[in-house]
Amino acid sequence: MAMLKHLLGIEGLNPVTVTTLLDLAESYALLNRSGKTQRDLLRGRTLINLFFEDSTRTRTSFELAGKRLGADVLNMSVATSSVTKGETLLDTATTLNAMNCDLLVVRHNRSGAPALLAEKVGAAVINAGDGTHEHPTQALLDALTIRRNKGRISGLTIAICGDIAHSRVARSNILLLTMMGNFVRLIGPPTLLPSGIEAAGVELFHDMETGLKGADIVMMLRLQKERMTGGMVPSPREFFTYYGLDRAKLAYAKPDALVMHPGPMNRGVEIDSDIADDPARALIKEQVEMGVAVRMAVLDTLARG
């Protein structure tokens, strides 16, 4: 496996690298479940969480991953800091370089911001979500969760449903799942499917019944109202009627189909609580658990790179 300097996206990775990261993450998942104490792998290393956009879930997951590996973890919530006073991204990079941080986790509302920082800082940069571009660790944790439950991460039919157009999670998952040899279907109203996405080797569907037929995995996405211009979807209630996952719609998929959601969930909009809380069908809690293991694997790999 070629040494990774940064993790800016799934784009640019290959199946060998992905498999190596998933295997390492699997070993961390087992370690975490055994209750073993943190390792000394990152002792003396500094991890900075630089979040220009709120995300309790992802930030906490990276924080826990860093601490379990023994790193010094610093959270910089930029919404309340100097950037709002007019400091540029490059000024921030200069500051970070002066701090000699080793690992930098970046979430930004502009696509490409982590890549720009990666050119300007000495630290290894991990993209924790940039605009509508990518969210690579989410796709890796989803892949690990699927592999643990289906025994493989190839040859599966995976339906991604809902607001695909605004979803960096969908983009990273499409790249990873097609690269590993799965059949990816996108389901949603035309307004929420990005134009030209067929070129990525996916099938498009506008109704749940045909889209979910024969699916092994049903991955629901939330409506990202903060990124939408008006009129893209009718009303939450109407959206749920056509595209919200409930028992009746899940019955279109395979009998052993499993349900995923990257969170946070809008219950009653894209997913029914009855499904979300069903331990026999939903993998949502396991996705959160695997998130820590995958982020430990990524931090470990980049620190060695």
| Helical segment count | 11
Instruction: Work out the helicity level.
Output: 25-40%
Task: Give a short account of the largest sheet.
Answer: 5 strands, parallel
What is the rounded distance between the termini? 11 Å
What is the topology, as strand order, of the major beta sheet? 7-6-5-8-9
Overall geometric form: globular
The low-confidence runs, each spanning 5 or more residues with pLDDT under 50, are none
Q: Which oligomeric form is depicted?
A: single chain
Structural class: alpha/beta
Radius of gyration over alpha carbons? 19 Å
H/E series: HEHEHEHEHEHEEHEHHEHH
- Say how many strands there are: 9
Strand content: 5-15%
Mean residue pLDDT: 93
Furnish the topology, listing elements before pairings:
Blueprint: H1 15-34, E1 46-51, H2 56-68, E2 72-77, H3 89-98, E3 103-108, H4 113-120, E4 124-130, H5 136-150, E5 157-161, H6 168-179, E6 183-187, E7 203-205, H7 208-212, E8 217-220, H8 236-243, H9 247-250, E9 258-260, H10 273-276, H11 284-304
Parallel strand pairs: 1-2, 1-3, 3-4, 5-6, 5-8, 6-7, 8-9
